[in-house]
Amino acid sequence: MRVIVQKYGGSSVSDFNKIKKIAQKVASVADKDTGVVVVVSAMGKTTNQFIEMAKEISDNPPRREMDMLLSTGERITMSLLCMALSELGVDSISLTGSQCGIITDDRHNNARIIEVRPFRVQDEIAKGKVVVVGGFQGVSYKRDITTLGRGGSDTTAVALAAALNAEKCEIYSNIDGVYTADPAVVDEAKHLPEVPYQQMQEMSSNGATILNSQAVQFAKEKNIAIYARSTFKPGNETVIRNFPPGIPKGVLAVVYEKNIIKVHFNSKDEESFKNLLKELESEQIQIKELNYSLSEKDKHSCSFIISPKNSYGWGKMEEKLKSDYDDKLHFEKDYSTLSLIGEGLNKDNSILIDIINLLKEKSINILSISTTSYRISILVKKTDLEKSVKLCHKKWIE
Q: I want to staple 219 with a disulfide (CB 3.0 to 4.6 A). Which of 103, 108, 224, 252 is the partner?
């Protein structure tokens, strides 16, 4: 039996009428020769509402309890969709991440899937049922409920598709695939019919919200094609898959991450730096673009950037770090990152020279630069971000 995995995001299930429409879409696909697994997100802005509820109680809520709270949103959606399918005469069953056999590490709020044991899912498919899964969640090897971070329902869908050897994985949202820039910022953003895994992962890791980067990593490792589509406006789609050599080099897209903090740390004590890293790790704060140096006077100096978007208690954490390290630690805020994504971007310095000159001509200060063969990232002030994105898109895409 062929298996298809579909995932519907929060905007696709934001009200009861949309859930009923999705039930009709699912019913039209499911038959005796096709097993369908449907992964759903929480309805609309439910997850954000839960986060605000938690903030009313605590500035720094325990991560484990946040997972207990946030994981309920998807369970609501999956049970409602099964009810809608029942009304259409379609036999279905709702399963949580743990019931699906999604095993994760024990990093609450940003867990990584380490194994999928889909035996229950396979049994239900064999019985002719549509399996509706609550995305964004799993169970740790300690048997605690965990969540997979922002966009984690994508990861659930791709991981299940891999474990079930699915024919394809379809990701449905309110936009019809991947664009060369955020259409909300750049009116001239162009639809991309195909994107290679590596470039898509770079886009997702550097601000693009259409797909979760861990989901793309899963797809790349298992060679599963992802079809990114609009839920209610069929037409365009973007296929994310492996491509043979020979893709045109150059800039494919311009992405951004709006809220970035730059951290500076100076100390004569190497142990202090190690302790800082341990504290950040304990709070699951990922650091990027680390620059570390040791001066002739044995002074340890470093800088790095962090994105606090997935840290529900960052404010409290920042206060603690300032208290622990006093004047050794300095935070610079109101920054954003702009990234050019493509292939062969550092084969020479031409694109790097061009972007430096382009932004300088428009009096936009570049605060730091990092490069890989697939990405050039620029740190700018938040007030310059939108202008910078439009300038870069006009030069390299339009």
A: 224
